[in-house]
Each structure stands twice: as C-alpha cells, then as structure tokens.
Amino acid sequence: MRPPPVRVLRLGRAAYLDSLAAQGRCVRRHREASASSEAPHRLLLWEPSGPVFTLVAYPVLDLRRFGLPVRGYVAALESVAVAACRRLGLPQAAALPPPCTGVWLRGRKVCAIGIHCGRHITSHGLALNCCTDLTWFDHIVPCGLEGKEVTSLSRELQRHVSVEEATEPFLAAFQEVFNCTLMEGSPTEN
C-alpha cells in the first residue's frame, strides 16, 4: 500500500514559538482525524528568524500509515538529509551509528535530528544547516556530543547555499525516501 500524500506547508521565516504553535495545531488536527484514513499528513518547512540559517522540517505523520517504527523513522529522516546533501553536490554525506544521530560530512555534523512521537504521530524533526554562522556553535555542545564539530552546506561547498536553494533537493529526497506524493498547502492550514 502506497503511503498517503503529505501536504507541504511553507512557513517561511518564523519565530521558534510560532513554528512550534503551528506544529502543535497540526498534531492536534492529525490526532482528531486519526480514526479516519483522511488524517492530514503534513511537512512544515520553516527557517528560524533567530540567529541561525537552517532549513527546519517538522513532519507530522502517522507512522502506522508509513509502516515505520520510531528508529526506522529516524533512519528515514537521515536518509532524506543524506540524499539532499548528495543532490546538492556532497556525495560524502553519511549517517553514522548511534549516538551520532544526524548527518555528517567528514566528521562534522551538517544535520541535527530530534523527534517526538506520541500515539504514533510524529513531531519535531530535523535541521539542515545551510548558511549558518558556525561560530554560534562554539558556545554550546551541539547535540550533547563532546568534541564534535558542526558544519554547513555553505562551508562544505565553499559557496553560499541559501535555504531556498536547499529546499527543492530536500523535498525531492523526502518524496523519494518516504515514497509519498507531496502537495503544496497553505500555511493557514496548520
């Protein structure tokens, strides 16, 4: 059985709390409709308006409809980010075994993954560093991994890679990995 279609909601630049509220509305609507086969699967895309430049994706999916356990879902998100990196010209992108969840380029993390799954409905997701000011990571231990560096698509490709440039390869990779049809939606649908 083919997975259901996923509606892409492009939120643009948004404050974290606004994107979190939009995600919460999508999760609530999904749970309310979960008894029907018409539950609204969504992929929220947004760029934080704060001091980072990442493509952040929050899939709101019922994992039962996609036939995925939680660990399989994390692996699928890693596969999406790896495929997006490769489409952008970084064939060395790879997922590493736990505890190094995410996507890595020559030992540097380019994509962080952090999910939540309740009653089979996913929330949160991944952040793909596009043109991030990497000095901000000097003040934290990213993902709790001591001694690991963070990188960006721009650094690795040695040119500016905007969120807009990374979005279409990301969406193509998402559609391929999740074997689903993506449909454009309106941000007001969340």
TrEMBL record:
Site feature Lowers pKa of active site Cys, where: K109
Q: Which GO terms describe its biological process?
A: protein lipoylation
Question: Its annotated pathway?
Answer: Protein modification; protein lipoylation via endogenous pathway; protein N(6)-(lipoyl)lysine from octanoyl-[acyl-carrier-protein]: step 1/2
Where is the chain membrane-spanning?
none
Q: Might you give the EC number(s) for this enzyme?
A: 2.3.1.181
| UniProt key word Acyltransferase | yes
Q: Which Pfam families match?
A: LplA-B_cat
Residue span(s) of domain BPL/LPL catalytic: 1-182
Molecular function terms, GO-annotated: lipoyl(octanoyl) transferase activity
UniProt entry tagged with the keyword Acyltransferase: yes
Swiss-Prot/TrEMBL keywords: Acyltransferase, Transferase
Cross-referenced PROSITE patterns: BPL_LPL_CATALYTIC
Uppermost EC category: transferase
Report the active site residues: C143
Example GO CC term: the record gives: mitochondrion
- NCBIfam families noted in UniProt: lipB (TIGR00214)
Q: Which PANTHER family match?
A: LIPOYLTRANSFERASE 2, MITOCHONDRIAL-RELATED (PTHR10993:SF7), OCTANOYLTRANSFERASE (PTHR10993)
* UniProt record similarity statement: Belongs to the LipB family.
What's this protein's name? lipoyl(octanoyl) transferase
Source organism per entry reads Podarcis lilfordi (Lilford's wall lizard)
